[in-house]
């Protein structure tokens, strides 16, 4: 901002009067907050596990490690599935981005980014492009082709004022949704690099965001260091709902396939289920023996299973309705950083600080 | 979260930073924004937890047949990630 610009209207002449106004507003905020809590509490009638009591328990799932993708020399920080259910993009702390064929475990592309800590990567809906970024504060896109050195075609689309922590394409190859350590989210036009909408409301770093699987609405969710999950109206840029409950950073947020609920994973070692229509937390997935952060969560195709990747190297398999842990998947040799179900729900993929990516089915 | 302990200053993009730096809101603006937000949220229509639970259960039940991970071993042949079978039944 130039020094001679006046960003705000002149401050009211009487500072005492302004102090009164602030106090009145603060009191109103306090009352509204109390009323909201009461409203939400009133609707908390029967817990979901009680409603699910008569359901058959989940049987033997037979989920095993089926593939291991080796090639990163640093901690893998993020991964994303292609909609072809076969290709995977991953990014690591040493600045590498790799595109894999999940069936054959072959590397199809490997890029070296100019900065380390590539914290986010995403596959475009057409599978012809990837987006990635992190500590460079940017989100760059790279078209995938076998004809030339694709790094030459890398183009930066988004720029934040702090690291870019998460990104996803929105409906088409031409819109990118990003979240950042600058506590904002934004939508960008891939072609022009113009910011189309930004989202202010978080009071801490944004770590994760998600859009509903059947994206007919105009909302997305984001969560992060302020322990809150926020629901946004894409068109207006307005925060429409805010969810609390977690006692530490939220690292991961994923919509339930029904589009009305979402799960979160947090440094407080719990996963939680929230529902947009109930406007509150519905369930906590926790165990006394689990003390490590949850870094990635995702649902199975029907929403019955909630998978959670933990800092204790394990994948927890939860019954999302009965709210009990069904089983544990062992394999990784360091903390899990990211976990995602494949687009057709046939497999899950986990990325880890052990430099590997594993596919489980 | 996957973030380094001490985030070093951006190597690139600093030229944009001054330009993009959001204005720091005044105390007044901050409180006003909080009240506006709460007013929006207090107008929301809400459902009971029992209602949304019933809908969640219904959704899971309706889609359980398509859920390959849930059907596990029954669905091996539909899963492209299954291990190749080396043994045959005699």
From TrEMBL, chain A:
A Pfam family recorded for this sequence: WD40_Gbeta
UniProt cross-references to SUPFAM superfamilies, sorted A to Z: WD40 repeat-like
Keyword Repeat in annotation: yes
Gene Ontology BP terms: signal transduction
InterPro entries the record matches: G-protein_beta_1-5, WD40/YVTN_repeat-like_dom_sf, WD40_G-protein_beta-like, WD40_PAC1, WD40_repeat_CS, WD40_repeat_dom_sf, WD40_rpt
Residue ranges of the region described as Disordered: 1-20
WD repeat residue numbers: 69-101, 157-198, 199-242, 243-284, 329-361
The organism's place on the tree of life at top rank: Eukaryota
Keywords, ordered alphabetically: Repeat, Transducer, WD repeat
Keyword Repeat attributed: yes
Gene3D superfamilies: YVTN repeat-like/Quinoprotein amine dehydrogenase
Family: Belongs to the WD repeat G protein beta family.
Name of the protein in question: Uncharacterized protein
Provenance organism: Caenorhabditis auriculariae
Phylogenetic placement of the source organism: Eukaryota, Metazoa, Ecdysozoa, Nematoda, Chromadorea
Automatic annotation (TrEMBL), chain B:
Domain G protein gamma: 31-90
Signal sequence, start to end: none
Keyword Cell membrane set for record: yes
GO molecular function: G-protein beta-subunit binding
Keyword Glycoprotein annotated: no
Annotated GO CC locations: heterotrimeric G-protein complex
Compartments reported by the entry: Cell membrane
Pfam family, one: G-gamma
GO biological-process terms attached to the record: G protein-coupled receptor signaling pathway
Topological type in the membrane: Lipid-anchor
Predominant cellular place of this UniProt entry's protein: membrane
Record-stated family: Belongs to the G protein gamma family.
Assembly notes: G proteins are composed of 3 units, alpha, beta and gamma. Interacts with gpb-1 and gpb-2.
The protein's name in its UniProt record: Guanine nucleotide-binding protein subunit gamma
Taxonomic classification: Eukaryota, Metazoa, Ecdysozoa, Nematoda, Chromadorea
